[in-house]
Each structure stands twice: as C-alpha cells, then as structure tokens.
Design goal:
Elements: E1 4-5, E2 8-11, H1 18-53, H2 68-80, H3 84-99, E3 117-124, E4 127-133, H4 136-143, E5 149-150, E6 153-154, H5 165-178, H6 184-187, E7 189-194, H7 206-234, H8 244-261, H9 264-276, H10 281-288
Antiparallel strand pairs: 1-6, 2-4, 2-5, 3-4, 3-7
Helix pairs in contact: 1-3, 1-4, 1-7, 2-3, 7-8, 7-9
Length: 289
C-alpha cells in the first residue's frame, strides 16, 4: 500500500503538554495567515476589475452556495457604499467558508481564499507526532518553525537525500504503528489552529492594494491582453462545427501564437490593456464607481 505523509512532523513534548505549544505556534503563524488573506482580497478585487473590463458582473464571482444574507451584504458594500476593499474582504470570507466545506474542490493556489490550518496529532511516549493540513502557505510556514521537526515519510518515490536509510526505515516503523488504519483522522486527534469561522477578515488599506498592483500589474495586463486578443481573433475566425470548448481552446492557441510573433493585433491588445488595467486603488475607484 502506498503511503504519502508529506507534512509529517513531531514536537519534542508529550501530548498532554502539546496544546500550549500549539497555541504558541498559532500566535507565530497568525501574521502569515493574515498576509495570505490580504493577498487573496487584493487578488479578488483585481479579478473583479478584469471581469468588469470583460463585461462580466461582480455576481459571477460569488459561489453558487452563497447565502442570501451574504449576497445582500456584498451588494450593499458594492452598490450603496462603494467600499470595494470591504467587498473583497467579505468575498474572501464567503469563499473561505466554502473552501472548508466537504463539497469544495481541492484547490491550492497562492492567492486562493482558504485560511484553514489544522494538525492531526498522535501521542507517542515523550513526543507528539503529527500531520499538518491546509494550504501550502500554512504547511510551509508551520514546518519552518523551530518547535516543529520534520518527520515526513512516503514509499512511492525515493527518500530525501538528507535523510539516512536508517532514519527513513525508522520513520516507516513509527508511522506504521501510529496509523494502523491508514486514515489519520481515525487514528489521531484533530486540532484546528485556523478556520474561517474564527478568522477576522479585515479589509486591506488602499496602500496595500497599491503595493499589490505594483507587484502584479504585469500579470494582470497580460490577462487583459489575452482576452482582448482572443476577442479580436474571433471576429475573423468562425466557430464552424467546433464545440464551444474546442473553439475557446483554438482562440487561446491562436492568441498565444500571435503574442509570440508580436503581430499588429497583439500590439494593439497590449497597448489597450496597458491603458485599461488599474495601477492604483484610485484607478479602481474610477473604473468601478
């Protein structure tokens, strides 16, 4: 049977003393998770701007399971108050809760809205072993803490070069003992450090949005350019008997080819995108108001 415990770890403390250690870990990771949420908010607001330029409604960004109350509050922030940063914060709040539901698709992007961070704990004499669960931003930061010692294990590919054969074999034995059912939730104790229900989704300041745009505007402009170029190409490229998906893929490939060749149409799309994509929060206000 294949075993993949990529985020295995241990704490040098028995299980009865692990909770104070985990509370300290949570305090240390809180700035990381707040930064993750802020990036998600800025990303969602930027996507809103691109969608607006593409002729799409902000409602297309809501999850299908969005409650009536949440939708009404988002509309209030968007239309009545023009508080677009607050709108982005609430949207990330809504999506963060959806991401923790059992029917959420398994996604893990650097700018997604998930703020879940938890560990499955396994008592073993003077140590507490565990597996961290959550987006990469959480698990990477968790594993980098000095209190947390790497104890990953898998039998599907080669071991890490830094781990000796004897150590790798010892890890295998430990995990076999700790996971007799191979279902960590059945064999261990779950402890949640971060969850959307207990997370403060605070809207970023305009200066934070400006900084995010400065760092990511090239990517945003490329996305807008791609849309404009595909629209221009579609004017002279009939769909014919192609399915909708095949036609979209064909336009995408043609747009990439023209962008590489730097055709006149790609130059037009690039110039137009550069003028349209916001460079500051003031530009966002002008675009959406």
């Amino acid at each position: 049977m294949s075993i993949k415990i990529y985020t295995g770890f241990y704490l040098d403390t028995p299980i009865e003393e692990a909770i104070p250690v985990l509370k300290g870990i949570k305090a240390a990771l809180e700035p990381v998770m707040k930064e993750r949420a802020k990036i998600a908010m800025c990303s969602q607001l930027a996507t809103l701007c691109l969608n607006h330029l593409n002729g799409e409604s902000e409602k297309s960004m809501l999850p299908a399971s969005c409650s009536k109350g949440d939708e009404e509050y988002l509309n209030y922030l968007f239309y009545s108050k023009k508080r677009f940063l607050g709108w982005a914060a609430k949207l990330v709040d809504v999506w963060a809760n959806v991401s923790e539901s059992s029917f959420s698709p398994a996604t893990d992007y650097s700018e997604d809205c998930c703020v879940l961070g938890k560990v499955i704990l396994f008592p073993c004499e003077k140590r507490t072993y565990g597996i961290s669960r959550g987006p990469l931003g959480f698990t990477n930061a968790f594993e980098a803490l000095p209190q947390v010692h790497d104890f990953c294990y898998w039998n599907t590919t080669d071991k890490p070069p830094a781990v000796s054969d004897a150590d790798w074999a010892a890890r295998k034995q430990v995990w076999n003992n700790l996971l007799p059912s191979f279902w960590s939730e059945d064999d261990g104790l779950s402890y949640t450090l971060f969850t959307a229900r207990r997370f403060d989704f605070i809207a970023p300041e305009a200066e934070a949005m400006d900084a995010w745009l400065a760092e990511n505007r090239t990517h945003l402009t490329a996305r807008r350019m791609g849309f404009l170029l595909r629209e221009k190409i579609s004017e002279t490229t009939p769909q014919g008997e192609l399915s909708d998906i095949s036609y979209v893929l064909k336009l995408h490939d043609l747009a990439l080819m023209e962008a590489r060749r730097k055709t006149s149409r790609s130059a037009w799309a690039s110039s137009k995108a550069e003028k349209e994509v916001p460079a500051s929060y003031d530009d966002i206000l002008a675009l959406l108001s």
